[in-house]
User: What shape does this take?
Amino acid sequence: MNLRTILLTSLVLALPICAADKAAKPGKWVKMWNGKNLDGWKANEHPEAWTVVKEDGKPALKTSGFRSHLFWMKEECENCEFKAEFKCTQGGNSGMYFRTAFGPGFPKGYEAQVNATHTDPVKTGSLYNFHKNFESPTKNDEWGTQDIIADGNHIIIKVNGKVITDFVDEKKTFMKGYLALQGHDPKSTTYYRNLQFRKLPPTAPAADKK
Assistant: This one.
């Protein structure tokens, strides 16, 4: 076998490995909000609850005065990562929904709680109704980051880079749906900025915990 044949054979054998490696890489981050208006977003009720403001010198989405949920309508989440910066005010309650259905009232889907001092004892970083955290990792009037990883039935929620929730939903309650932000009640005010989304590779059957 000459040198050329050896090189061609090695290249052919390597191609499936390279293709597999490429397919396994997470998707690129997508900026969900343009910082100017609500293009691509839709409120399920009381759209007046959502305004674009300057907060601490940067564009932010503000929710205040009503119960309302603002849905990102461009793409649904199946396996995905969803992150944002947020800021709670005194007594504020909000949340980042994922794999949720568009509809009135409180949507059907997963919610990563955003709450530092609201009377609800379930605080920021909780997976509402599934995994409870009773001590907020952030304070009122300071910006924090919440990062949600939904990989099959395995849900991870990080706040400021620290894992608060690591939960396997054996019932696989919600497996696909929209991403949304919550305006919880008339007395709650919350700010969001730097909202980002990316697709994750499909979960291998062996990794999907039951």
Q: What stands out?
A: The longest helix spans residues 3-24. The CA atoms of residues 21 and 184 lie 42 Å apart. Helices lie at 3-24.
